[in-house]
Amino acid sequence: MQRSAIAGVQAVAARSGRTFARHTHDQFGIGVLRQGAQASHSGRGPVQAGPGYVITVNPGEVHDGAPIGGGVRAWQMLYLDPEVVADAAADIWACWPGGGSRQFEFEHPAQDRPALARDLLALYAHATGGAPALACGELLLRVLAQAGGPRGAAPPLAPRHAVPGAIRHARGLIDDDPAAVLTLADLAGACGLSRFQVLRAFARATGLTPHAYQTQRRLQLARQLIRQGASLADAAAQGGFSDQSHMTRLFVRAYGVSPGRYALAAGRA
């Protein structure tokens, strides 16, 4: 079990050849089988999962698990408290008729969905790596929207006429202070939309998620500070990065040059 930065979410990584007897959890579980294969009997029928498969379990669902072929299998799982899932589901399906009152569930116990697996592994890395709340919140909503819902209901889009002005407010919050610690709830409050609607509408309007947009604005601020003569440590701190190495990694990824070399080229080092 690894430390998780997301309240109400536990992160577990395992590698085992053990056969698990039938049991239940009081949380939602969703993960990715990283190695090997597994057969299990779940409340949704017998299933088999191979490498890269997304595996899920609902609270109270009786299930077991055994490696196929007598080998070992490895997996990474996130266990989410029901309150966390209920809060996210009510937000995602806020505009769906009866969505807020319908019970969320994972429909498929095992499925081969590479895009969902990538988002889920990214969420796991964010949770265990202490990523910003904005990034964790985005991925959590995306994962749950893809993986389940109230009787398979599709998440509704925000009314298009409400989007441009609302997203300007959200973008303005980031532009006014790129280093500020913001959550999707902060942006949703400024927009008058749900968190999930903000996530989808922001990406549609700007081509970036709110966290990706904030990261770009922070990098632009850091470059400006470096050009003005700030030290790299000060540029990282004032730019909203957790530390100088964090800024450096993102700086190189975005611009192909380190902040130190950028400072030299700007005549500031």
From TrEMBL:
<protein>
    <submittedName>
        <fullName>AraC family transcriptional regulator</fullName>
    </submittedName>
</protein>
<dbReference type="Pfam" id="PF02311">
    <property type="entry name" value="AraC_binding"/>
</dbReference>
<dbReference type="GO" id="GO:0003700">
    <property type="term" value="F:DNA-binding transcription factor activity"/>
</dbReference>
<dbReference type="InterPro" id="IPR037923">
    <property type="entry name" value="HTH-like"/>
</dbReference>
<dbReference type="GO" id="GO:0043565">
    <property type="term" value="F:sequence-specific DNA binding"/>
</dbReference>
<dbReference type="Pfam" id="PF12833">
    <property type="entry name" value="HTH_18"/>
</dbReference>
<dbReference type="InterPro" id="IPR050204">
    <property type="entry name" value="AraC_XylS_family_regulators"/>
</dbReference>
<keyword id="KW-0238">DNA-binding</keyword>
<keyword id="KW-0805">Transcription regulation</keyword>
<dbReference type="InterPro" id="IPR009057">
    <property type="entry name" value="Homeodomain-like_sf"/>
</dbReference>
<dbReference type="InterPro" id="IPR003313">
    <property type="entry name" value="AraC-bd"/>
</dbReference>
<dbReference type="InterPro" id="IPR018060">
    <property type="entry name" value="HTH_AraC"/>
</dbReference>
<feature type="domain" description="HTH araC/xylS-type">
    <location>
        <begin position="168"/>
        <end position="265"/>
    </location>
</feature>
<keyword id="KW-0804">Transcription</keyword>
